[in-house]
Fold these 2 entries.
Entry 1:
Amino acid sequence: MAAQNITIDIVDSGSPVGSTQQLIAGALDIGAVTSTQMALGVQSGAPIVSIMQNTDKPPYLVIGKKGITSVQALKGKTVIVSGPSAITRVFMNTVLQKNGVKPDDVTFTYAGATNERYAALLSGAVDASILLPPFSFRATDAGYPVLADIREYYPHFPFDTYAVSTTWGPAHRPLLVAFLKALLEGVRYLENPANKDRAIAILMEQTNTPIGDATKTYDELVVKGRVYSTTGTSTPNDYNQVIETLIQLGLAKTPLPSPTVFYDNSYLDAARR
């Protein structure tokens, strides 16, 4: 960002749902939101659009309370996800259904941030939680069982994205192009093995994560999973997948608009040039 003469004021909204709401309200210029929130927002008439896909492989694990060894054992239990219409609920519904459990057979409770869901699992308040690294590694290292890896159910899924309002974006095109150039450079930095040690050190500094968990997180997200999109572009097929998933799970109604209304690659095309 500094190389592009940009100073970022980072606001923690607590969840992608919160980011979407603040973006729609005009409290944010750029929001980190999930593809499902994009689709649901646009369907409701929200004037927002994706400008860059961040990750396209959701690195979530479903972690159970000690003693619970299968998804089927969650019937009648309590599961924590980030929100009732959030992408983690979408993923969890699919995991349950693929394992013969109806979503109505479990009690859902909600917390927007992974660290909050991790704390709920450790406290015994829930029977299963959907977690991102490094908290998923902390849980498994502590002996909590992995019930499902979301990537086995969604090997490719446009997970989270950067979005802007359809009025703010065009009025700030040069700034957005510079912002996206910086993000693309950031992905290239992470992809370069020579930067591994510094990348791990940054993660440790910013999240107070022990070196073991930080190293596992880097290896899982960057080396093994390659979850960060190197191009950032979205396609109709990407959002068709999002739309179809939302409809199947009863979280969206037909007809939905064309998938091309959810994203605008023009800012990204200019950044790559």
Entry 2:
Amino acid sequence: MTEIKYIGKCLVVETNGNEKKKILVVGDMHLGYEESLGIGGVKLGKNVFNESVEYIDNVIDKVGKTGEKGKRLDDVRGVMGINSGNGMSDEYADEINNIIEKNNIGVGSCGVDEIVLLGDVKQEFGEITKNERENIVKFLNWADEKMRGKGKIIIVKGNHDAILWPILRGKERVEVVDKYIIGGVLFIHGDKKIKEIEDKKVEVVVMGHWHPIAEISEEKGVKRERYKCFLHGKQKGKEWIIVPSFSEQRYGKDIRDTDFDKVFGLRSEKFNAFVVSDKELDVLDFGELGKIGN
């Protein structure tokens, strides 16, 4: 059975069976978008990239604090009675290994086995800007280090990602694919329907691209607020999850005002909206999208 958790703007998919993995899913990042806005005369703060990394870092840390597999180095120190400020020299190596084995602690893991980026990692269609190159390389290096060189980063190509290969030279733990299937879960960008969706072995379809939001009014006809949201529902014998865009600059729109229904033959208003809260990394169930904002 596949377990799904919403943590802020990110999704955690935990597969079971022969391919048991904990996968962090990040929607459309559009790295470099701030540069394209700058060219148009709109200047954004230089901290956009750093804030994005810090956000995902907090998500991974939250995942890592749940379950034995995700226990972190601080927990090992606690088991050993070692202060966090003390160094971990070679003299502790044997003792650490014994404790890891005894307590089943995954020190080599941050709690995440893989990171799946659901496409549109970059912004520009036909070129690679300096900002895109620098930020994508920095992000991939950071993610690899965060997973201690033991995890895999999978980029499911989006319609903005036609030119990626020059950035990825030497990135052995980064895979670029058109779709990714593991443990009955199909990850796609979502800009088009693909034949693998009809595969009977696929139980869950996870996609980005549509940048879903929920529009909520405090009182009828008075002040409408827009919130990023996950859309989650069961239709046509499968479980469907649409992940919000990670980029704050590419906020999103109500999926009912898009061609989503035509592309996938689904009823978007029947999806449940899980709204991303401004508070910490909370996500709130607001019920059926079709009943929100009416």
